[in-house]
Amino acid sequence: MPINIYFYFIIFFENNTLRIILYCQLFWLIFSLSLNKHKNACINIDC
User: Does this entry carry the keyword Transmembrane helix (predicted)?
Assistant: First the structure.
């Protein structure tokens, strides 16, 4: 396994703040994409 991927997993699993931010962004990405199926407006939701 490349060392940079190894450090990325350390940062991802040990940094709770980063993990919460990534999950929040992923949730809002899916949420806004599902809304865009019904509305043509571009929705920007700030976590």
Answer: yes
15 half-sphere exposure, CB direction, 13 A CA radius: 12
SS3 at position 47? coil
- H helix count then E strand count, the chain: 2, 0
Q: Where are the domains of the chain?
A: 3-36
With tokens 């949420």, the residue in question is 31
Q: Give the pLDDT band (50/70/90) at residue 38.
A: low
How far apart CA 43 and CA 31 sit, in angstroms, is 10
CB of 21 closer than 8 Å to CB of 47: yes
- pLDDT, tens digit, for every residue of 22-35? 888 888 888 888 87
